Amino acid sequence: MADEGLELSRRKLLGLMGATTAAAAIGTGTGTAAPAVAHERRTARLFFTDVGSGPDVMLLHGWTCDSHDWSWQLPVFESKYRVVAPDLRGHGRSEVMPPGSYTPADYVADIETLILAAYQGRKFVLVGHSMGAQIAARLAVKRPDLIRAVVSIDGALGFDAAAARLFGKTTRDLAAGDPGTVVPALFAGVYDRGMDPAFTRWHTRRVQGMPKHVVRESFGPLFTGPDQVGVEEASARFCRHLSMPFYHLCRDPAQARRMRPWFSNPKSKVEAWTGAGHWIMLDRKDDVTAAVTAWIDAL
């Protein structure tokens, strides 16, 4: 490894390190962040990759997913930005925490700790999908000193009363049934008709391999309970507190019209995207990559 011509990229280094949990991994660009205590909340050891140079961008995946969901965006993003892509707690290769550890605040604490531990003094553009977008928005409200802007790709925000009823039923179904069947049934209603069947099979197999308590406990607090910010007026009040640039891409034109007045920053925008399901970045890979990078570059 000392040969002058041998250069290891962060991604190659990740391959050598595997799931190493040494605290030294922080700062090498890959590995896992050592857990820490934030506001008396135990944070998880997160697997993440760190590739590229330029403005700091962090990609946050959705519920029952992992950072592989960004694979079609990573080549362009990593050529323009420093891209940090973690797996959230209980997902992918990150630490599985015990039951009772999957509120939105728990997820936010993990990302806050990661930034403070490994990227002190840097401000990120957070790009989140689904649950990841709500986590990004919550962190932006809590710690605007750490966040430069937020991109929400069909994020768990701004849903109406009909969606609230569906999400309430899903929460009950998850508690009573097998997440390995409940989640694919929910996803079937949000796929685009042209979705590659390989993706739907991937999503089903992935959730069937996850600990059931992670799946069950992570969903409900996004949309139900006194602290939810995903539906109806509670979501509107929350979004009005987002002072930094916010770019929301969603599938529902009515939702887009409803949400546009909520964001005060002149660089914020809300768009309805047709020809796509919930995974907009998979159904319209190149379009999403081009739109998001153009918006980030114009900040």
Summarize the entry for a quick read:
The chain is an alpha/beta fold and 299 residues long.
Which terms summarize this structure?
AB_hydrolase_1, alpha/beta, TAT_signal, AB_hydrolase_fold, Pimeloyl-ACP methyl ester carboxylesterase, two-stranded antiparallel sheet, catalytic activity, 15% strand, single chain, Rossmann fold, 299 residues
Can you lay out the helices and strands and say which pair or pack?
Blueprint: H1 10-17, E1 30-33, E2 37-38, E3 41-42, E4 46-51, E5 56-60, H2 74-80, E6 82-86, H3 104-118, E7 124-129, H4 131-142, E8 147-153, H5 161-176, H6 179-188, H7 197-208, H8 212-223, H9 232-239, E9 246-250, H10 253-259, E10 269-272, H11 280-283, H12 285-297
Parallel strand pairs: 5-6, 5-7, 7-8, 8-9, 9-10
Antiparallel strand pairs: 1-4, 2-3, 4-6
CATH superfamily, by name, is: Alpha/Beta hydrolase fold, catalytic domain
Determine the N-to-C terminus distance.
40 Å
- Strand neighbour order, sheet with most strands: 1-4-6-5-7-8-9-10
CATH class: Alpha Beta
CATH architectural designation: 3-Layer(aba) Sandwich
* Multimeric status of the protein: single chain
* Biggest sheet character: 8 strands, mixed
Tally of alpha and pi helices: 12
Count of spatially separate domains:
1
| Helix percent band | 40-55%
